[in-house]
Protein backbone atom coordinates (compact mmCIF):
# COMPACT_ATOMS: atom_id res chain seq x y z
CA UNK A 1 0.00 0.00 0.00
CA UNK A 2 1.33 3.44 -0.93
CA UNK A 3 1.87 5.73 2.03
CA UNK A 4 0.51 9.27 1.78
CA UNK A 5 2.30 12.48 2.68
CA UNK A 6 -0.20 13.16 5.46
CA UNK A 7 0.30 9.73 7.02
CA UNK A 8 3.96 10.56 7.54
CA UNK A 9 3.22 14.03 8.92
CA UNK A 10 4.07 15.93 5.72
CA UNK A 11 2.03 18.61 3.95
CA UNK A 12 1.61 17.97 0.22
CA UNK A 13 1.88 21.25 -1.71
CA UNK A 14 1.81 20.04 -5.33
CA UNK A 15 2.42 16.82 -7.23
CA UNK A 16 5.65 15.40 -5.86
CA UNK A 17 6.29 18.45 -3.67
CA UNK A 18 5.77 18.78 0.07
CA UNK A 19 7.16 19.90 3.37
CA UNK A 20 7.10 19.07 7.06
CA UNK A 21 7.40 21.24 10.15
CA UNK A 22 9.96 19.82 12.53
CA UNK A 23 9.45 19.88 16.30
CA UNK A 24 11.29 22.12 18.79
CA UNK A 25 12.14 25.03 16.44
CA UNK A 26 9.26 24.63 13.96
CA UNK A 27 11.82 24.50 11.16
CA UNK A 28 10.62 23.52 7.68
CA UNK A 29 12.13 20.75 5.57
CA UNK A 30 11.02 20.38 1.95
CA UNK A 31 10.95 17.48 -0.50
CA UNK A 32 10.81 17.46 -4.30
CA UNK A 33 10.42 14.06 -5.96
CA UNK A 34 11.58 13.27 -9.48
CA UNK A 35 12.00 10.03 -11.43
CA UNK A 36 14.71 8.17 -9.56
CA UNK A 37 15.96 11.31 -7.83
CA UNK A 38 14.77 13.44 -4.94
CA UNK A 39 15.80 16.78 -3.45
CA UNK A 40 15.51 17.52 0.27
CA UNK A 41 15.58 21.16 1.32
CA UNK A 42 17.28 21.62 4.70
CA UNK A 43 18.36 18.83 6.98
CA UNK A 44 17.11 19.43 10.50
CA UNK A 45 18.82 20.29 13.77
CA UNK A 46 20.71 17.08 14.64
CA UNK A 47 22.02 13.89 13.07
CA UNK A 48 19.11 11.94 14.52
CA UNK A 49 16.59 14.40 13.08
CA UNK A 50 18.36 14.27 9.73
CA UNK A 51 18.18 10.48 9.74
CA UNK A 52 14.44 10.56 10.47
CA UNK A 53 13.93 13.09 7.70
CA UNK A 54 15.82 10.95 5.23
CA UNK A 55 13.88 7.80 6.12
CA UNK A 56 10.49 9.50 5.74
CA UNK A 57 11.49 11.34 2.57
CA UNK A 58 12.73 8.13 0.95
CA UNK A 59 9.54 6.33 1.93
CA UNK A 60 7.52 9.06 0.22
CA UNK A 61 9.78 9.23 -2.84
CA UNK A 62 10.10 5.48 -3.27
CA UNK A 63 13.86 5.88 -3.76
CA UNK A 64 16.87 7.52 -2.14
CA UNK A 65 17.35 11.22 -1.53
CA UNK A 66 19.96 12.16 -4.12
CA UNK A 67 20.24 15.93 -3.56
CA UNK A 68 20.25 18.19 -0.50
CA UNK A 69 19.93 21.99 -0.60
CA UNK A 70 20.86 24.03 2.48
CA UNK A 71 19.05 27.37 2.53
CA UNK A 72 21.47 28.99 4.99
CA UNK A 73 24.07 28.05 7.62
CA UNK A 74 22.09 28.00 10.86
CA UNK A 75 22.14 24.92 13.09
CA UNK A 76 18.43 24.07 12.82
CA UNK A 77 18.80 23.81 9.03
CA UNK A 78 22.23 22.16 8.61
CA UNK A 79 23.07 19.99 11.63
CA UNK A 80 21.35 16.93 10.11
CA UNK A 81 23.24 17.15 6.81
CA UNK A 82 25.71 14.38 7.58
CA UNK A 83 22.79 11.92 7.67
CA UNK A 84 22.54 12.32 3.87
CA UNK A 85 25.72 10.47 2.94
CA UNK A 86 26.01 10.06 -0.81
CA UNK A 87 23.67 12.95 -1.64
CA UNK A 88 24.87 15.90 -3.72
CA UNK A 89 24.86 18.87 -1.31
CA UNK A 90 24.21 22.43 -2.51
CA UNK A 91 24.56 25.77 -0.76
CA UNK A 92 25.03 29.43 -1.60
CA UNK A 93 28.60 30.31 -2.51
CA UNK A 94 30.61 31.02 0.64
CA UNK A 95 28.56 28.81 2.96
CA UNK A 96 31.59 26.55 3.38
CA UNK A 97 33.50 29.41 5.02
CA UNK A 98 31.03 29.20 7.91
CA UNK A 99 30.95 25.43 8.10
CA UNK A 100 34.70 24.85 7.83
CA UNK A 101 36.09 27.78 9.81
CA UNK A 102 36.74 26.99 13.46
CA UNK A 103 35.08 30.21 14.60
CA UNK A 104 32.02 29.51 12.44
CA UNK A 105 31.63 25.98 13.79
CA UNK A 106 32.03 27.20 17.36
CA UNK A 107 29.35 29.83 16.78
CA UNK A 108 26.98 27.23 15.29
CA UNK A 109 27.49 24.97 18.30
CA UNK A 110 27.10 27.81 20.80
CA UNK A 111 23.93 29.03 19.14
CA UNK A 112 22.45 25.51 19.11
CA UNK A 113 23.15 25.02 22.83
CA UNK A 114 21.80 28.50 23.67
CA UNK A 115 18.59 27.57 21.83
CA UNK A 116 18.22 24.36 23.82
CA UNK A 117 19.91 21.61 21.78
CA UNK A 118 21.63 19.06 23.99
CA UNK A 119 25.38 19.78 24.05
CA UNK A 120 26.20 16.16 23.18
CA UNK A 121 24.00 16.31 20.08
CA UNK A 122 25.52 19.66 19.11
CA UNK A 123 29.05 18.26 19.43
CA UNK A 124 28.12 15.21 17.37
CA UNK A 125 26.61 17.36 14.62
CA UNK A 126 29.51 19.82 14.49
CA UNK A 127 32.07 17.00 14.29
CA UNK A 128 30.20 15.46 11.33
CA UNK A 129 29.15 18.62 9.47
CA UNK A 130 28.84 17.91 5.75
CA UNK A 131 30.29 20.44 3.33
CA UNK A 132 28.27 21.47 0.28
CA UNK A 133 30.01 20.15 -2.81
CA UNK A 134 28.19 22.54 -5.12
CA UNK A 135 28.24 26.31 -4.54
CA UNK A 136 25.48 28.36 -6.15
CA UNK A 137 26.59 31.83 -7.21
CA UNK A 138 23.64 32.92 -9.37
CA UNK A 139 21.17 30.22 -10.39
CA UNK A 140 21.53 26.46 -10.78
CA UNK A 141 18.98 24.18 -12.46
CA UNK A 142 18.68 20.62 -11.18
CA UNK A 143 17.14 17.91 -13.35
CA UNK A 144 15.51 15.31 -11.10
CA UNK A 145 14.18 13.26 -14.00
CA UNK A 146 10.69 12.67 -15.30
CA UNK A 147 10.41 16.26 -16.49
CA UNK A 148 11.00 17.61 -12.99
CA UNK A 149 13.41 20.53 -12.86
CA UNK A 150 14.17 22.70 -9.84
CA UNK A 151 15.89 26.09 -9.74
CA UNK A 152 18.30 26.95 -6.94
CA UNK A 153 18.83 30.71 -6.60
CA UNK A 154 21.38 32.57 -4.52
CA UNK A 155 19.27 35.51 -3.33
CA UNK A 156 21.38 36.80 -0.44
CA UNK A 157 22.93 38.27 1.50
CA UNK A 158 19.93 39.01 3.69
CA UNK A 159 18.95 36.78 6.64
CA UNK A 160 22.55 35.53 6.44
CA UNK A 161 25.43 36.12 4.07
CA UNK A 162 24.57 32.87 2.27
CA UNK A 163 20.84 32.58 1.50
CA UNK A 164 19.57 30.04 -1.03
CA UNK A 165 15.99 29.81 -2.31
CA UNK A 166 14.46 26.89 -4.20
CA UNK A 167 11.84 27.33 -6.94
CA UNK A 168 9.79 24.33 -8.02
CA UNK A 169 7.95 25.13 -11.27
CA UNK A 170 4.46 23.72 -11.69
CA UNK A 171 0.86 24.45 -10.87
CA UNK A 172 1.13 25.96 -8.37
CA UNK A 173 4.74 27.06 -8.35
CA UNK A 174 6.38 26.55 -4.96
CA UNK A 175 9.17 28.68 -3.51
CA UNK A 176 11.13 27.41 -0.51
CA UNK A 177 12.35 30.60 1.17
CA UNK A 178 14.43 29.45 4.10
CA UNK A 179 14.41 32.03 6.90
CA UNK A 180 14.16 34.92 4.46
CA UNK A 181 10.45 34.54 5.29
CA UNK A 182 9.00 33.53 8.66
CA UNK A 183 5.32 33.14 9.44
CA UNK A 184 5.30 31.89 13.03
CA UNK A 185 7.22 34.89 14.35
CA UNK A 186 9.08 38.03 13.36
CA UNK A 187 12.04 37.38 11.01
CA UNK A 188 15.19 36.96 13.07
CA UNK A 189 18.14 39.23 12.29
CA UNK A 190 21.22 37.95 14.09
CA UNK A 191 24.81 39.19 13.86
CA UNK A 192 25.25 37.49 10.47
CA UNK A 193 22.23 39.23 8.89
CA UNK A 194 22.57 41.92 6.21
CA UNK A 195 19.36 43.93 6.79
CA UNK A 196 20.05 46.52 4.10
CA UNK A 197 19.75 43.79 1.43
CA UNK A 198 16.85 41.84 2.94
CA UNK A 199 13.91 43.66 1.25
CA UNK A 200 15.62 43.23 -2.13
CA UNK A 201 16.00 39.50 -1.45
CA UNK A 202 12.24 39.26 -0.87
CA UNK A 203 11.63 41.11 -4.13
CA UNK A 204 13.78 38.44 -5.78
CA UNK A 205 11.63 35.71 -4.24
CA UNK A 206 8.51 37.41 -5.61
CA UNK A 207 10.12 37.65 -9.05
CA UNK A 208 10.94 33.94 -8.93
CA UNK A 209 7.52 32.71 -7.86
CA UNK A 210 5.08 35.31 -9.08
CA UNK A 211 1.73 36.31 -7.69
CA UNK A 212 0.13 32.85 -7.59
CA UNK A 213 2.98 30.85 -6.08
CA UNK A 214 3.04 29.16 -2.68
CA UNK A 215 5.84 30.53 -0.50
CA UNK A 216 7.23 28.14 2.12
CA UNK A 217 8.86 29.99 5.04
CA UNK A 218 11.68 28.62 7.12
CA UNK A 219 9.33 28.63 10.13
CA UNK A 220 5.54 28.62 10.11
CA UNK A 221 2.65 28.06 7.72
CA UNK A 222 2.79 28.35 3.93
CA UNK A 223 2.04 31.91 2.77
CA UNK A 224 1.17 33.83 -0.39
CA UNK A 225 2.78 36.66 -2.32
CA UNK A 226 0.85 39.29 -0.36
CA UNK A 227 2.36 38.00 2.90
CA UNK A 228 5.89 38.10 1.45
CA UNK A 229 5.28 41.62 0.17
CA UNK A 230 3.99 42.71 3.59
CA UNK A 231 7.02 41.20 5.32
CA UNK A 232 9.30 43.00 2.84
CA UNK A 233 7.64 46.32 3.70
CA UNK A 234 7.87 45.62 7.43
CA UNK A 235 11.56 44.76 7.18
CA UNK A 236 12.26 47.89 5.13
CA UNK A 237 10.53 49.98 7.79
CA UNK A 238 12.25 48.14 10.64
CA UNK A 239 15.74 48.67 9.21
CA UNK A 240 15.23 52.00 7.45
CA UNK A 241 15.68 50.62 3.94
CA UNK A 242 14.27 52.62 1.02
CA UNK A 243 12.16 50.62 -1.42
Topology of this protein?
Blueprint (H helix, E strand, L loop, with lengths): L10 E4 L2 E5 L6 E6 L4 E4 L5 H15 L5 E3 L5 H4 L9 E5 L2 H6 L1 H13 L4 H10 L5 E3 L2 E7 L2 E7 L9 E5 L5 E9 L15 H12 L4 E6 L5 H15 L4
Parallel strand pairs: 4-5, 5-6, 6-7, 11-12
Antiparallel strand pairs: 1-2, 2-3, 3-4, 8-9, 9-10, 10-11
How would you characterize this protein structure?
Helix 6 links the parallel strand 11 and strand 12. A seven-stranded mixed β-sheet has the order 1-2-3-4-5-6-7, with helices on one face. It has a five-stranded mixed β-sheet with strand order 8-9-10-11-12, with helices on one face. With 243 residues, the protein is α/β, with parallel strands linked by helices. The radius of gyration is 17 Å and the shape is globular. It has seven helices and twelve strands. Helix 4 packs antiparallel against helix 5 and helix 6 runs antiparallel to helix 7.
Order of SSEs, N→C? EEEEHEHEHHHEEEEEHEH
Helix content range: 25-40%
Low-pLDDT residue spans: none
What's the main sheet like? 7 strands, mixed
Q: Classify the beta-strand content into a percent band.
A: 25-35%
Shape: globular
Q: How far apart lie the N and C ends?
A: 52 Å
Number of strands: 12
Determine the number of helices (DSSP H or I, runs of at least 4 residues).
Answer: 7
Which strand order does the major sheet show? 1-2-3-4-5-6-7
- Gyration radius from CA atoms, angstroms: 17 Å
- Rounded average pLDDT: 96
Could you say which structural class the secondary elements and strand pairing correspond to?
alpha/beta
